[in-house]
Amino acid sequence: MNDQQQLLIVSNRGPLRFSVSSDGEVTAKRGGGGLVTALSALTATRPVTWVASALSDDDAAVAERGAYRDGNLTLRLVQHDREEYDRYYNVFANPTLWFVHHYLWSLALEPSVDRNVRLAWEAGYVPVNERFAEAAAEELAEAGPRPLVMVHDYQLFMVPGSLRARVPDAVIHHFTHIPWPQPDYWRVLPVDVRTAIHESMLACDVVGLHTPRYARSFLQCCERFVPNAQVDVRGGEAEFQGRRIRARAYPISVNPDEFERLAAEPAVVDAEPKVLEARPEKLILRVDRTDPSKNVVRGFSAFDLFLSDHPEWAGRVTMLALLDPSRPEIPEYAEYVGAIQRAARAVNDRYYTGDWMPIDLRISDNFPEAVAAYKHYDVLLVNAIFDGMNLIAKEAPLINERDGVLILSENTGAHVELGRYALTVNPFDIQATADAIHEALVMPEQERHQRIEAIRRQVREHDIDRWIRDQLDDLAEVDGVEAPEALR
Amino acid sequence: MNDQQQLLIVSNRGPLRFSVSSDGEVTAKRGGGGLVTALSALTATRPVTWVASALSDDDAAVAERGAYRDGNLTLRLVQHDREEYDRYYNVFANPTLWFVHHYLWSLALEPSVDRNVRLAWEAGYVPVNERFAEAAAEELAEAGPRPLVMVHDYQLFMVPGSLRARVPDAVIHHFTHIPWPQPDYWRVLPVDVRTAIHESMLACDVVGLHTPRYARSFLQCCERFVPNAQVDVRGGEAEFQGRRIRARAYPISVNPDEFERLAAEPAVVDAEPKVLEARPEKLILRVDRTDPSKNVVRGFSAFDLFLSDHPEWAGRVTMLALLDPSRPEIPEYAEYVGAIQRAARAVNDRYYTGDWMPIDLRISDNFPEAVAAYKHYDVLLVNAIFDGMNLIAKEAPLINERDGVLILSENTGAHVELGRYALTVNPFDIQATADAIHEALVMPEQERHQRIEAIRRQVREHDIDRWIRDQLDDLAEVDGVEAPEALR
């Protein structure tokens, strides 16, 4: 691999969102998030083509004009039929796949694989993935040998297989940003679906996941569901159709400099008073999407238990929950917001004194407020049921000003790196979580300082640039020594 | 091992239930079920001591008088504190463990490990298991070297560890009658609990499960949760504290002769008219406990879909659901009965014609009626979500008189042996289940005959006696060649 080798990125959400004025002028706005920032940074040294969905009418209008070019970046927007996209995104990817990956189904009654789910697969997920693969192949039409393709996440499991058929010599990488469930739980999906997904993933050269545990689970699934694959779980690889597939752990991270810069931004500084207002003596913070995997309700129950076990803290500590509304079109998500609100109200009704609100629940999309809260928490609660990584556990400590303590679920990807510096909790164990809240609040200053410094060191030494570099290095190896001659 | 070596069986439910008359006369009644029959048969050739719970006041009264003896059988009943037993059985074993083993929790909200579950473990499951181990050790006090102990099921995971400490040279076997879940799902339980359970199980010499898949899952769990264990998943064994533990698959079965005898019993013959009354032209049968793992609701939904896809069958086929009420003290079970009733009513309201009831739902404990129905079904639906074995799939075909077709969930233990002769369904896929119902109803006579004959051959050649014999043979091997000298 060299820097002039064509690099193609495929993800559902692209790096830019467009607006088109009434006179046809196009404005591009950079999307947020460390992933987009980090991948976009690659354009500094090489041409990058990015294939992503047109997500708005303005995006679609831009897509009509062909690929969008800006310096080294070429953005190819894929247009979808609205209904097909809805089945793909709002039925199959979410909640069906998301709930399988996070073990969230209430299996006694849900899901039922009926015409709706079947259609979401056959006339949603599969054709939308096909369309991505087709667009990617078109963009590679004039590429040199062994073009490099990085495909992102669970919305696009069927892209590698389809792309391999169209561009046999491509170096294909797929990264999954959520956990990989173990084989039994995949049995929620019919055999043809789970086989198709794993066969497609085995069209990759490298399959990236956040942790060694997920990588093992992926390989165990291949072993179970793809009879013709030769799988070496311990060795971290498989052979399928004459090719070698590596499953590797690359724990995603953040850009520390970006957060230090953000912390000083006017919008963040302006949001600080509203955060400080919530804090009596101490502040427990959680920042999450309103996703059932995030375990907000048990977090409130644990705080309830803590207040009941430790009445001496009444009036002195508030739990600030900054929740970004997520996927409101999906019934399971809408219902979960209801459960969150009921749980917060139950605690507040029980302990409210007139001048102290135990839980300050704020449901809105307000990133500056979240960053402001990162600076001022005493305890950061990350108790996700299952969570691919959880970047909040990595980013918030970087700019916290109070040597805040991290309480971290053992079922997050972040726990592999940060567990030893955090107070570990089992996310289902609300008594243990309540105990951890107390332990965090009374922890001596020096210990708190050592722990947060250790977290910062770990994150700075394993930042997002390193995450990308490690993957590109492994892909270079694929392209170099070990690719079978026949494919050249 | 030889036939005079002491054999001790430990299970929560024993082989006999007692009644004591007002003048103190004790009557013992043999409990039902193939397991009790088969294990009791061992008393024909050797002395057997059985340790089980006293489950009624009369049982307790008998227990007060010491061990009960009848020929080669010695029955030692263990008395429990009522509250402790309730925590052990109705909170920890069910639903907590049962729901973990069958992947049934709705994890977004349940379970919460709180004081209640903690207490159920610490002041329920653990001490009740201790009491079993203590009683077993007492019964072994005068045993010769290397007494043989067989412990049964998920209520008694903590017995092997406790017994090993008391009787170091015992040959300990444990058999789990339900699936073994994969490591991720065990994370619903706190680390100390899941570690304790797996460490205790590694005090066995042989760990028996129904299928190779469960045995693999068990070993993968040991690898994950017991850092000091050396585990060889492919080899089917582990080493822990200087001992070797084998994890083996022994698919439980039934006694074919018993079912042929039962089929002719007056109570069964008397029940036949009530079964035949339900059958218009064809009869689809399901026989289950009202357990959420049995998937009754999706079975009704699938029948609904079938009737909607195939209106030509209206009035010609009835689904007879014979459901044995199960664990009504447990809220999740009580609620599931409600869901079953609502689902049946919805289908009946939709298709009821005055002289045809699409679903005939009978919730009662009526074994003769179930056996009568075994004789007369055209389709047997076994669509369990997850099921350790499912013996109905093995026993009903033995005495069916209509070359009935078996529809079998791929997630049952029975599917390993019978899948190739059944119509396999994914239990979540109600469309596929509806299609299978149609396929079964229109299957040519000759094919139906071949399939049911193949099932019968498989079950007759792998009956319950063979299940026990295989286990005793493996235990003889433990005792013979391979036990470390140090333990003798």
Molecular structure report:
The structure is a homodimer of 488-residue chains. The first copy, chain A, is 46% helix and 18% strand. Residues 481-488 of chain A have low confidence and may be disordered. In chain A, the strands form 3 sheets. In chain A, strands 5-6-4-1-7-8-9-12-11-10 form a 10-stranded mixed sheet, sandwiched between helices. Chain A has helices spanning 34-41, 57-64, 82-101, 115-139, 159-166, 183-186, 191-201, 212-225, 256-263, 266-276, 296-309, 331-351, 367-376, 392-399, 414-418, 430-441, 445-461, 464-482, and strands spanning 7-10, 16-20, 26-30, 48-53, 68-70, 73-78, 148-152, 171-175, 206-209, 230-232, 237-240, 243-249, 282-289, 317-324, 359-363, 379-382, 405-409, 423-425. In chain A, α10 packs across α13 (367-376). Chain A has 2 domains: 7-253 and 466-487, Rossmann fold (3-Layer(aba) Sandwich); 257-461, Rossmann fold (3-Layer(aba) Sandwich), CATH 3.40.50. At the A-B interface, α6, α11, α12 and α16 of A face α6, α11, α12 and α16 of B.
